[in-house]
Amino acid sequence: MNQLVVVSLLPVVLLIASGFMAGRAGWIRPVAIKDLSSLVFLLLTPALLFRTMSQVHVEQLDFKPVAAYFLAVIILFGATLLLQGFNRRAAVLALASTFSNTVMIGIALIGLMYGPAGLVTLLTLVSVHSLLLLTSATLVLELAVAREQKQGFADGLGGLAHTPHHPLATVLMAVRNALLHPVPLPIIAGLLFAQTGWAIPAVIDKPLELLANAFGPLALVLVGVMLAHTPVGRHWRPALALAGVKNLLHPLLVFGLCRLLGVGGLPMTVMVVAASLPIGANVFLFSQRYQVAEELITASVAVSTALALLSLTLVLLLVGPAA
Question: Which family does the similarity line name (predicted)?
């Protein structure tokens, strides 16, 4: 196996494994996961995102690799709906097939492997990732609920007391929720600050740097803790199939489209690695909200995260661990 691949992935594997062992040993209990997640997302993530993007000028951003990434998302999302039918379950499965864990694992992994240059490329994707995917998924799910109720399947909503919104109101609500989030806000704020040409004062920059440096290790340890407390149960077979689509088919599709569109080098590598990341936790929140495939999605997130150790290795052998 390529030695550079092993060297690149080994810190990630060890950090996740240490979190898994800490969870299994009971050192970090399930009740603490929510607080640790809040620490990572509400404090460490904004510090890292703002500090990274505060040194980036808009003309440095390249959205062509992002276009290749989302073209693959559109293909997979649409194909899932065509195969599964237009309903809530299909919409949630489509989101699971395309929504990567770009923050908790992606930012930590890309930062460790490719440094600031790779991080800027990833954050260009992250800046629109949740906005486009979660907005689209919300709209599709609301329309699916309306369709099921119209066809007389309201009783099949599992007791969900839900009144579909007007499509325009749904889109506006989803856009607002995606923007008022600890991920896009510091990215936008950092970009705006960078355009002023100012530098962050040292007395502020140093604490931000320390918080940003803490993000990667703590986020990966938290992934391991969550894996230790996530049941898979009888859903492991369909979960493995869904994880295979997300972890393997998605990056292969992105790789092919990048080649087709003439995207290469570090931007292509980062997009393909981002596509090979496991299913993001937001998918589980959607399955909870719409009360559909909750156990399957829970199992799929766990299986996808565990499978990522293998799929990331294969992807890095395909595109190379460095540009």
Answer: Belongs to the auxin efflux carrier (TC 2.A.69) family.
